[in-house]
Design brief:
- There is one protein chain.
- This protein has one domain.
- The N and C termini lie far apart (50 Å).
- Helix 1 runs parallel beside helix 4 and helix 3 packs antiparallel against helix 4.
- The mean pLDDT is 78.
- It is mostly helical and 72 residues long.
Length: 72
């Protein structure tokens, strides 16, 4: 089995951390809005683990803000 590169491992860890931070914090979602493009890149070129971390991070960034806007 091929061992993931350090770069891939770091990206996976960062994607998971962004997901965790954006899950409940409106402030963090605003701060990580610039991370959208790199997260989309992870979907294109990442491993399954990277794809999962990126997808859930993007969902957290998108859905929470939409709920807040629609709830006003």
């Amino acid at each position: 089995m091929k061992r993931p590169s350090t770069n891939t491992t770091v990206k996976n860890a960062l994607g998971k951390e962004i997901r965790r931070l954006t899950k409940t914090s409106h402030w963090c979602r605003r701060q990580f809005s610039a991370a959208v493009a790199p997260l989309v890149d992870m979907l294109r070129y990442g491993s399954v683990e990277a794809n999962e971390a990126a997808l859930f991070s993007l969902l957290n960034l998108a859905v929470k803000d939409e709920v807040e806007v629609c709830g006003q």
